[in-house]
Design a protein that fits this description.
CATH topology: FAD/NAD(P)-binding domain
Structural class: alpha/beta
Distance between the termini: 41 Å
Shape: globular
CATH class: Alpha Beta
Number of strands: 18
Number of domains: 1
Bound molecules: flavin-adenine dinucleotide
Radius of gyration: 21 Å
Strand content: 25-35%
Helix content: 25-40%
Largest sheet: 9 strands, mixed
CATH architecture: 3-Layer(bba) Sandwich
């Protein structure tokens, strides 16, 4: 049996510095907890993401000391949805949102975490072990560094080597999606987020800072693999939607080549795994068509930080109760949204079903904002 290192000064170690990890680091540091965040990549860096964030999290980001509009975020309040053949429906967004690149947002959060005293290490975590007797964790990193601590947050995103080493059940299931994203220059309304369908997937289009347009799509891998590369796939499949054809024809890429991620899965995950408290996509991922994965990652950081603070202050008496409190709050807040996201996803990429749905919605257009609300929450107000 391994023995633990002594003397780590960090009360909480967070693995992964995307939105969920950084929000936990800021919230806990702001409330006096000594935090170490371990992130495998350096900041700033681009990520595959549609980069439209629901206003649901705006008051919470402001509580954390961040106003995205100070950094060029774009106000978005209209939504457009189209079928593969280009049949389109438009509506105002019930709550609205904003567009900001992950390149900018993650870097802003990272700098805020540092300014509040959080430590950040650039390393890749390879293993996490919980020692029952000592009631503590040991963390191993690729560099050979080892850490020990009382509380570990898993905020390492949708899929990681750690899911394999933790033997998480979703990792054995199907991960049939591919995500592709790039920034473009061209004409596109600043206040609009569009979701256009193509065979086997959908593509989001909206503006971010610097007048750049984010074009990001999720494609069924079995459709994609029939084509030899991204360019051919875009020519042969994506631009069959006349709306997407117009956008691609009138925009010029800013990136040398698009970013891609594969093996995206939406299978359910456990909120707690071997005492590791999961946050963001590590705890569960909503279909990107709902445009609320980032909102959920940020919101889950709030729920988890509050449970940890109550535990550290003695209001929650044991680790087990802290875990149960967080898991309950997570399920109460997100399980209905995940279910709605799964349901809506079954309409996408299937033009007959979606076309039928859109025809019905043109007769009762007031229903669309109501449907969008099923995957979003109310604005988050926070006392501490
Ligand atoms: C195609 C697509 C489009 C999307 N569009 C939108 C959208 O428009 N709006 C929206 O709200 N959501 C969208 N989402 C969802 C959104 O991107 C995610 O929900 C969000 O990024 C989750 O944040 P996170 O912090 O949980 O994970 P991430 O942002 O993925 O961060 C995880 C971090 O952990 C690090 N990491 C991983 N393994 C290790 C390790 N072993 N050691 C150390 N570090 C590690 C990674 O480097 C990464 O920085 C989209 C998702 C996809 C796939």
């Amino acid at each position: 049996m391994n023995t633990l290192l002594n003397g780590s000064s960090h009360q909480v170690i967070i693995i992964g510095g995307g939105l969920a990890g950084l929000v936990n680091a800021i919230h806990l540091s702001k409330n006096g907890i000594r935090v170490l965040l371990i992130e495998k990549n350096e900041y700033p860096r681009h990520k595959v993401c549609g980069e439209y964030i629901s206003n649901e999290v705006l008051p919470y980001l402001q509580y954390l000391g961040i106003d995205p509009f100070d950094f060029g975020a774009v106000d978005i309040n209209r939504f457009e949805l189209s079928t593969i053949k280009g049949k389109t429906i438009k509506t105002d967004l019930p709550l609205g949102g904003f567009g900001i690149s992950r390149y900018a947002l993650d870097d802003i959060l990272y700098k805020r975490a540092i300014s509040l005293g959080a430590s950040v290490a650039c390393d890749s975590v390879t293993n996490i072990t919980f020692f029952d007797k000592e009631d503590r964790f040991k963390i191993n990193c690729k560099s050979g560094t080892e850490y020990e601590t009382e509380i570990v947050i898993g905020a390492y995103g949708k899929r990681s080597n750690l899911d394999v080493s933790l033997n998480r059940s979703f990792i054995k299931g199907k991960s049939p999606y591919l995500g592709v994203k790039a920034h473009y220059k061209g004409a596109f309304p600043s206040d609009l987020v569009a979701l256009h369908n193509f065979e086997g997937g959908y593509c989001g289009v909206s503006k971010v800072e610097n007048d750049h347009i984010n074009i990001c799509y999720l494609a069924d891998y079995s459709t994609f693999k029939k084509f030899k590369d991204i360019q051919t796939f875009e020519e042969e499949v994506i631009t069959k939607n006349p709306n997407l054809k117009e956008i691609f024809n009138n925009c010029t890429p800013v990136f040398d080549k698009p970013l891609t991620i594969s093996q995206v899965s939406f299978l359910p995950k456990a909120t707690i795994e071997n005492h590791i408290l999961m946050s963001g996509d590590s705890a569960g991922m909503i279909h990107p068509l709902c445009g609320n994965g980032m909102g959920m990652a940020i919101h889950s950081g709030l729920l988890l930080s509050q449970s940890i603070l109550e535990f550290k202050e003695g209001k929650i008496k044991s680790r087990e109760i802290m875990e149960a409190t967080y898991a309950k709050a997570w399920n109460k807040t997100f399980s209905k949204r995940l279910f709605a996201g799964k349901l809506f996803n079954s309409f996408f990429g299937r033009d007959k079903v979606l076309g039928f749905g859109l025809n019905a919605l043109t007769l009762v257009p007031f229903l669309l904002p109501h449907i969008i609300k099923q995957t979003h929450g109310d604005p988050l107000t926070v006392e501490r």
